[in-house]
Design goal:
19 helices, seven-stranded mixed sheet, single chain
């Protein structure tokens, strides 16, 4: 039960009879800066337990606990504050933004001074950071039948001075996250050129080549312009060397010219992310420090435009002073208006969009609220989506009704006290919607409306970001995290800079220059194969926002400052495609199973001239509406493409991430397998090493349950949550107990990967995951029966008597045939069946099918997902032998003469061959 009390009724007394289930009393407050919360509380007819918690826009702070012993204490019982009972206790909690600490009073007496409400779990120290109070709650339950809680005289008010709205921006001349002084000094007397970038450095000065060098055999060919620019070598001198001509441009061999003509040494690096750095100098260069080499490579690879360069490029742009100029220009909209009449995909997307806009226009005005008790993100996302749709509808139709509906939301967002910088992606999402609103609706805005938006973006975005660039300890935090948050935040920043360049040119140029630098930390994550460590869902989010960032720069500036040349980013869309079947996505870690909506794929195919893939994606996206339909309409290229040289890649191995996906074809009804090995600890990680998914006949049979509520980790250990533990994945568990299940920090490496048209064999070393329970553990996968069935074999050397659990999560009907075989059936179509059979050695076991809940000794968290609709299929084997094997075969029923016997695979995986 939740009782929500609005700000205007905050002082209303509450009497609530509690049950043994948690009840929530939530007070809406919104107090900016330092604040004090006061309340009188008493408990009658027994005892209670629970928390008093403050939400400031990010990590919630549990400040007080009510114990079943009749006490009010600070979090985790650190300090006794007061005893509760029939008499009212007056509590006052003060929070100081700069110190990030609380003072706690009981009945007027200071009990705890400078108290931290930071959260410590088994894996994380979560620092409580916020700059306001948005809501505060009592989450309580009865420990005695009939216990009641009484709360009165509630208030939340500001203490000290109010935060200043009109922020003075002092542009960041230095940033805390990047120092390139050492690289500048190193290159002051040298020349560099890069095989992945048009960037060249000549005696400390950066230039852009019109044509990039390339490597052929053992030589590097650079264009004539490079030699003239770097060494003033004339065309006559170059003509003495063998050259190559491409598209009318002459390229000359760098090694030969350096050795025979100018007597220079050449250093060439192939080891760094974004590799391809070439340095020409008088002396031989040797760099053994990998970190230094990477920093030097990045310095020479990325253009990193200075504020002066950014401003100059804008001033020279034909779109200076012209709107729209982010993501789509007026020229684009003229073309798109015609294409939605003639192209069937675009016609469908546009129709869906207009229908969606009719629903958006009925939505109530947005308000400042943390809907999940933590984040403003959901408000920001509504704003960004609604504004993109309504503004696009206006630009395509000219109908003012879309602007009139949008303005009430723009005005509400403009008048918000902030965009919740303590949860920084809230700011980035809001900013993207704000930029599109200003840019695409610009011609309809009155002077007064523009002035409101221009002041708001100054205070709620540019000041926040500029301060975060100067130092790391602002509430906003790190502006360039090494994960999807990077583009979540920075796409909106760049979009607003470009949209508002005429109003905030100097500040915008500084912010853009620094933001481009922090984006480097994200772009390197796709090297070298295009895979992304957080999984396909988070990859899609990051890629979508990265492309929106690129599309906000390129139309106006005519360049992406070499960011788009980052290693393997052109292959990032393939990662999304490769991890999806016709049924679902391979949702390891915190990813959801729904197919990923990576509209940016269409932009990537255009930008990198990737052939043969856009039609498949467009067909997949054909029914999209809302935000997705906008970007599909903009990015889909209606021009026909040549499909003659396009090959379908049926299986892919991503080394390092240790992800393998495989299938028999791309058509409906395909058989698809995803295998996850690799690390146990990373952002959004689950303990899912050795796990797999299996799709066939148009549905998923072996499921990954995906993410649970992120907010659980504020009150529980990260790996106490069932969906993050090994026991909730399709892997092998040994002697499950209250511990994590796998050794944290251990890793499962893929030992070998062999692929042929008729099948695939993958072998994984699981040994370190089990600690002292084993001396050796291998798991192997055989995609067999002409890529229609999957065999999973575990070979384990135990150190003692153990219980082993071979796990598989299902949502199908089932029929247990005997102790070693079960038939799974599609509940909607009983003709679709698969057979799961087992053969074991070294112990005794049988099949079990139970509720998908933690094992008895595992942590029991009442708030976590109940996993309704799923079952836990497992083969339990008890063994006192040293050597144990479990072989399982998953076979679609009715595949005919191609079906093999499980006994064919009941031999050492060393003997498996294709």
């Amino acid at each position: 039960m939740t009782l929500k009390i609005s700000k205007d009724k905050i002082s209303k007394p509450v009497d609530m009879k509690l049950s043994n289930e948690v009840s929530t009393i939530e007070y809406d407050s919104l107090v900016l800066g330092d604040f004090a919360i006061e309340f009188d509380v008493s408990v009658t007819d027994g005892f209670i337990s629970g928390n008093f918690e403050i939400q400031g826009g990010s990590t919630p702070a549990t400040v007080l606990e009510f114990t079943k012993d009749g006490e009010i204490r600070t979090r985790e019982g650190h300090i006794h504050v007061a005893d509760y009972g029939c008499s009212l206790v007056k509590i006052r909690v003060e929070y100081f933004v700069q110190k990030r600490l609380f003072d706690i009073y009981a009945n007027g007496e200071l009990i705890a001074k400078d108290y931290s409400a930071d959260i410590f779990t088994k894996l994380h120290h979560i620092t409580v950071i916020f700059d306001k109070c948005i809501t505060f709650t009592f989450d309580v339950k009865a420990e005695t039948d009939g216990a009641k809680i009484h709360i009165e005289n509630v208030s939340a008010r500001q203490i000290g001075n109010a935060p200043v709205w009109e922020k003075e921006i002092v542009p960041a001349d230095e940033v805390w996250f990047l120092n390139e002084d050492e690289e500048k000094d190193f290159m002051k007397d040298k020349v560099s050129v890069h095989l992945r970038s048009s960037q060249t450095i000549i005696n400390g000065a950066k230039y852009n080549l019109l044509h990039m060098p390339y490597r052929k055999n053992e030589n590097i060919f650079a264009p004539a312009e490079f030699y003239k620019l770097a060494f003033d070598i004339s065309a006559e001198e170059l003509s003495k060397f063998v050259f190559e001509e491409k598209d009318g441009v002459l390229y000359f061999p760098l090694y030969d010219i350096c050795e025979k003509l100018i007597s220079k040494k050449v250093f060439y690096d192939t080891s760094s992310v974004h590799s391809g750095l070439v340095i020409i100098s008088d002396e031989t260069i040797k760099i053994d420090d990998k970190e230094k080499l990477q920093k030097l490579n990045d310095y020479c690879f990325f253009e990193r435009p200075s504020p002066k360069k950014w401003l100059s490029d804008y001033n020279n742009s034909p779109l200076k002073g012209v709107h729209p100029r982010i993501i789509a220009t007026e020229k684009d909209f003229i073309r798109l208006r015609e294409e939605v009449k003639t192209n069937e995909y675009k016609k469908r997307w546009f129709k869906n969009l207009l229908e969606n806009c009719e629903e958006i226009m009925k939505e109530p005005t947005l308000k400042y609220e943390v809907r999940d008790r933590v984040r403003l993100m959901y408000v920001a996302d509504d704003f960004m989506v609604w504004m993109t749709c309504l503004a696009f509808a206006y630009k395509m139709t000219g109908d003012r009704k879309y602007f009139d509906a949008a303005w009430k939301q723009i005005e509400a967002v403009s008048n918000m006290p902030d965009w919740n910088p303590v949860h920084h992606i809230d700011v980035g999402i809001m900013a993207l919607g704000y930029a599109i609103s200003y840019d695409w609706f610009y011609e309809l805005l009155t002077d007064k409306q523009r002035e409101l938006m221009e002041k708001c973006v100054h205070n709620n975005l540019f000041w926040i970001i500029n301060e975060a660039h100067k130092r790391p300890d602002t509430p906003y935090g790190d502006p360039g995290m090494d994960d999807n948050h990077n583009t979540f935040c920075n796409a909106g920043v760049i979009a607003c800079v470009v949209a508002f360049m005429d109003i905030h040119p100097e500040v915008g140029s500084v912010i853009a220059s620094n933001t481009i630098k922090v984006l480097e930390r994200y772009l390197r994550l796709f090297a070298p194969y295009g895979a992304y460590f957080e999984g396909p869902g988070y990859a899609a989010i990051g890629i979508n926002y990265c492309v929106r960032l690129f599309a906000s720069i390129e139309p106006c500036f005519g360049t992406l400052y070499s960011m788009d040349k980052a290693e393997a980013f052109d292959r990032s869309s393939d990662y999304i495609t490769n991890t999806e079947s016709d049924a679902l996505s391979f949702n390891f870690a915190d990813n959801g199973p729904e197919p990923r909506t990576c509209m940016a794929s269409l932009w990537l195919y255009n930008h990198y001239n990737i052939k043969g893939k856009k039609e498949h994606i467009a067909e997949f996206f054909k029914d999209y509406a809302g935000l997705e339909s906008v970007y599909c309409t903009i990015f889909y290229n209606v021009e026909k493409e040549d499909m003659t040289d396009v090959d379908e890649v049926l299986d892919v191995y991503y080394p390092g991430e240790e992800i393998i996906t495989m299938r028999n074809h791309f058509n409906p009804g395909q058989v698809f397998v995803g295998i996850k090995a690799g690390d146990t600890l990373y952002v959004h990680s689950h303990l899912d090493c050795g796990s797999f998914v299996f799709d066939a006949l148009g549905r998923r049979w072996a499921h990954d349950l995906g993410a649970d509520d992120y907010n659980l980790e504020y009150n529980w250990g990260f790996y106490e949550i069932f969906r993050r533990r090994p026991e909730s994945h399709n892997t092998l568990i040994i002697d499950p107990d209250e511990d994590e299940g796998f050794v944290l920090g251990a890793r499962a490496d893929i030992l070998s990967y062999e692929s042929k048209p008729h099948g695939i064999i993958v072998k994984v070393d699981m040994t370190t995951l089990y600690g002292d329970k084993v001396t050796d553990a291998k798991r192997a996968f055989y995609f067999t029966d002409k890529r229609q069935s999957l065999v999973v074999r575990d070979e384990v050397e135990l150190t003692g008597e153990s219980e082993l659990y071979w796990m598989m999560f299902i949502d199908s009907d089932y029929e247990v045939v005997d102790s070693n075989q079960v038939i799974l059936k599609d509940p909607q179509d009983i003709s679709k069946k698969i057979k799961v059979e087992f053969f074991v050695s070294g112990g005794n076991g049988e099949i079990h099918i139970d509720a998908p809940v933690p094992f008895p000794k595992s942590p029991q968290i009442p708030e976590q997902d109940a996993n309704e609709g799923f079952h836990k299929l497992y083969y339990k084997l008890s063994s006192s032998n040293k050597n144990v094997t479990i072989t399982a075969k998953i076979t679609p029923v009715g595949i005919g003469n191609d079906e093999s016997e499980i006994g064919d695979y009941c031999k050492s995986i060393c003997e498996w061959t294709l």
